[in-house]
User: Fold this.
Amino acid sequence: MTRTRNVSVAAVASCALALGALSACAPPSSSTGAGSGSAAASEPIVIGASVPLSGPLAGFGSFLKWGYTHAAAEVNAAGGLSVGGVKRKVDLRIVDDKTDPNQVTTNIKTLISSDKAIALLGSCTPDLVNPGALVADQSKIPFVAGCNPLEVFTSVKKWTWAWDIFFSVPELSKLSFDTMSGLGLATNKKVAILHDNGPDGQAVGREIWPAIAAASGYEVVVNVEFPVDNTDFSAAVQKAKDSGADILLVDSVTPQAISLRKQMAAVGWTPKVMVNEKGAEPVQYAEALGTLADGVMVGAYWDPSFPFKGAKELQAAWEKDNPGKTSSQHIADSYTAAMVLMDAIAAAGSTDATAVNAAIAKTDKEYPVGPVKFAADHTAKISVVNSQWQGGKPVMVYPKDRATGSVLFPMPAK
Assistant:
């Protein structure tokens, strides 16, 4: 199991910097209270995170890791978190869930039982966030995620210890139709939908998109579902092409999104509008496709140009750490989730799970991803925008007051 620890440099020579992460100088505390002795009070506060550093969602995981690590580094640079009147550093332990829900469950259990994590940060997408949240909830350990559509999160159960900061699925799904209407994009209003059989793929592709299309005056002429790990899209692509649809809506993970776009090019089909939720969001999508990505739209929620506290500074920090590399909005949701959790520990003045959980519930503050205030169902909704790949960069195209460039329409033929 791969582990990355990010803690402050202690005032002893044995704390060494390795691979961009810091190793803890003392074993993690098994105490959950603030007043359990001077030794425990001075030990680092262990926070665990399971993220996809390998597998199909590794493109998401690399940004989550950076966001979590950067947040912990900022807190440690300021002296740590005040608990029981004593500043304590954060020992952030990040493990690879390999884009495997079963591995998420194993990781979270290990972080709680062996690493003695007093709180946890989530993975990305429902398939990976929800299993971790379930373990945390059963174990009565605070858990904060920033990469899980809200309705999918709340459909699992009534949460007690798990919290989610993200967007509303219906709002994001409607955004494509709002974009076409708001920007006056002329199409024949015929829609082809291709989606995987994962939880969000089914919810969006089977139900939400068709309902919104009908309500918006569009006609769904093709709706094809495929396995999450599918590789051959030739039949689905041909069916969509033959339908005469000007609009293609896709919901899939990144490897499948890349393969599908290449297979569209192979048969010479370029719709006027193409939206690929989820899979087209990481920069790896544009890097793999080059100019084939141009014109593909994907729902978004963050850009450093947005007027949120710390948004520009977060982008600047990314650029300093990753010169010449394109960032992702996931640096904002992961950084925000980590800061919400650590702010709650500071507000509680304790590592007691009940106190920290109660402090999370009271969160009401602006972060780089926007204002965060939790509802009774343990969700905090952030606003959505529509982005489009142009020249290897994500350009915000709608709503107009958040746009950073003009929309490419129709989608460039290849």
